[in-house]
Write a structure and sequence with these properties.
By secondary structure, this protein is an alpha/beta fold. It contains 12 helices and 14 strands. A 6-stranded mixed sheet has the order 6-7-8-3-9-10, sandwiched between helices. The site of adenosine-5'-triphosphate (ATP) has 14 residues, from β2 and α1. It is a peripheral membrane protein.
């Protein structure tokens, strides 16, 4: 079942075209990640889907409601956790949750019960009655996510949920979110510029570059589509580079041979065999490595530039 469907979304801010016709479909009960470098258009997409911003063109439906015609119904069906903290630092964690629930129209007693339940789910019972402003960054982030879940939404939007968190807090948040989707059927849509986060968390991934979707699928499938191993070879001279490229291009099962100065990269079904063929052809190498294809390789293949380069 599809819980979000967006078609051909466009959005400009003055002369900046943030979205140039982006479409997506999110299956219910999954973690769906929008991955891309800063400025790719991820936040703009999430803001449109959560009714915080209007598209210039295109359509979007969330939980069966059109975002432009039924914004109130969409808002009732979703939770939204922005990049910036949303809790009141002077109030305790419990007070923040109860207040959020009351603002959502939940009666007093039920609000207190929901707060208790969420504090337990997010392992926040210990600091619950201390001011949230004094909590650790990881705890505060969990509180923000818990506040987004107070009214038990169908869909939870998380904009860059782990930016600024230490590795342990990130891992904890990933674990909690994936448990939630498995146990409650919640659909999570998150944006991230971390390749490892997208790789580990997402059931389904949409790679966004310059306002457009460039690739889509399960992380494992996207990597597998590249054809197995990534081979990287460093050569001594441009002449050796040319020879090596010719050897690689003549091999079956080797694709996307790219030269970058004295470095050669290619996708191969059997990376070790490629290195052997190069040795048999007598091409000397300075260094060589074989690794499973990563999301970095997926990005390079579909966006046509390295992820680091795009992020810079
Ligand atoms: N309110 C705004 N006014 C002007 N330009 C904007 C505004 N919001 C976004 N933009 C521009 O639109 C483009 C897409 O921005 P968006 O925030 O959607 O990207 P992003 O992929 O979410 O990146 P980030 O992680 O930096 O938020 C960028 O060029 C950005 O500078």
């Amino acid at each position: 079942m599809t819980v979000i469907r967006a078609t051909d979304l466009t959005k400009s801010y003055g002369r900046v075209q943030a979205l140039k016709g982006l479409s997506l479909e999110v299956p219910a009960g999954t973690v769906f990640a929008l991955l891309g470098p800063n400025g790719a258009g991820k936040s703009t997409t999430v803001k449109i889907l959560s009714t915080l911003s209007r598209p210039d063109g295109g359509t979007a439906e969330v939980a069966g409601f059109d975002v432009l015609r039924r914004p109130a119904a969409v808002r009732a069906a979703i939770g939204y956790v922005s990049q910036r903290p949303g809790f009141d630092p002077i109030a305790t964690g419990r007070e923040n949750l109860v207040l959020t629930a009351r603002l959502r129209g939940i009666p007093r007693r039920a609000a207190a019960a929901r707060a208790r339940e969420l504090l337990a789910t997010f392992d926040l019972e210990e600091p619950a009655d201390r001011q949230a402003g004094r909590w650790s960054g990881g705890m505060q982030r969990k509180l923000d996510v818990a506040m987004g879940l107070v009214h038990a939404p169908e869909v939870l939007f998380l904009d860059e949920p782990t930016t600024g968190l230490d590795p342990e807090a990130r891992t904890q948040l990933w674990a909690t979110v994936s448990t939630l989707t498995r146990t409650t059927g919640l659909t999570v849509v998150l944006t991230t510029h971390y390749l490892d986060e997208a790789d580990q968390m997402a059931d389904h991934l949409l790679i966004v570059d310059r306002g457009q979707a460039v690739a889509e699928g399960a992380p494992e499938a996207l990597k597998a589509d590249l054809g197995g191993d990534t081979v990287q070879i460093d050569l001594r001279s441009a002449e050796d580079g040319g020879r090596a490229a010719r050897v690689l291009e003549a091999l079956p099962d080797v694709v996307h041979v790219r030269r970058d100065g004295l470095r050669l990269r290619a996708q191969a079904r059997d990376g070790a065999r490629v290195l052997l063929e190069l040795r048999n052809a007598g091409v000397p190498t300075v260094a060589a490595s074989v690794a499973h294809a990563s999301l970095d390789d997926v990005y390079l293949r579909y966006a046509g530039r390295a992820y680091q380069e795009a992020a810079a």
